[in-house]
Amino acid sequence: MKETKIYEGKIIGLSVYDGKIEGRKVKREYIKHRGAAAMLAFDENKKVILVKQHRFPHGYVLEIPAGTLEKKEEPIKCAFRELEEETGYGAKKMTPLITYYPSIGYNAEVIHCFLASGLKKIADLNLDEDEILSVVKMDFKKVVSMIKTGKIQDSKTICAIMTYAAKKKLY
After folding, report:
1. Which of 48, 41, 59, 50 is CA-nearest to residue 132?
2. Are residues 97 and 139 both part of a single domain?
3. Number of C-alpha atoms within 13 angstroms, CB side, residue 166?
4. pLDDT tens track for 71-106
5. Which residues are catalytic?
6. Which of 27, 107, 125, 155 could form a disulfide with 103 if both were Cys (CB 3.0 to 4.6 A apart)?
7. pLDDT tens digits for range 41-56
8. Do residues 78 and 20 share a domain?
C-alpha cells in the first residue's frame, strides 16, 4: 500500500493509503495515534475514581482517568503516570483489564485499560496546560446505572467498568 501523509499533529496523524486487497483497488483514510492507557481505580472507601473532563466538542464528560502514551512509552508506565497526574493517587499495581480498538475501521488508536490497586493519595493534580478536569468519586453501582441509562457514554469507561463487572460476576 502506498501511504500519503496528509497531516501530522501533536496527538494524531492522518494518512491516505492506496493499494490492493484481494485484487481490489482500495483507498483508505487512516488516523494514526500512539494509543492510550486508562485506569479503573477504587479509593479507600471502594468508590470509583472518575474525572469530569472537558472533551471538545462534547463538553464535560464523566470518565475513568486516562492519557495518551508518550513516544515509545509502555502502556503500564503511562497508566501509573496518568493516574497520579489526573487524580493525585499512586498505585502499587496495575493489572491489565481489557485492550481494545475504539474505532477499528479508520483509526490506529488502541486503549489499554488497567485495574489500579493499592491506591494512596500522594500528590496534587498535575494537569497539562490544556486539561480541564476535576476528580469525582462514585459508587460502582451508580456508575453502572449511568452507563445503562446513557449518562456515561465514554467508550473506555464503559469497557473497563463492564469488563470488571463481568470478571467479578457482579451483573
Report:
1. 59
2. yes
3. 8
4. 999 999 999 999 999 999 999 999 999 999 999 999
5. 129
6. 107
7. 999 999 999 999 999 9
8. no
Q: Which helix (H) or strand (E) covers residue 167, if one does?
A: helix 155-167
Q: pLDDT digits over 116-136, tens only?
A: 999 999 988 888 888 889 999
Alpha-carbon distance of 159 to 102, in angstroms, equals 10
Q: Residue 113: enclosing H or E segment and its boundaries?
A: strand 111-117
Write the CB contacts of 56 (distance below 8 Å, at least 6 apart in sequence). Answer: none
Nine-digit cell at 55? Answer: 472533551
CA within 13 Å, CB half, 80: 10
- Rg (Cα) of the chain, in Å, rounded? 18
100 touches 159 (CB < 8 A): yes
Q: Which domain holds residue 56?
A: 34-167
Cα distance between residue 153 and residue 149, in whole Å: 9
Q: Cα(156)–Cα(141) distance, rounded to whole angstroms?
A: 17
Neighbours of 26 (CB within 10 A): 11
Residues 109, 114: Cα–Cα separation, whole Å: 16
Question: Quick one: 58 and 26 in the same domain?
Answer: no
Q: Compute the residue count for the chain.
A: 171
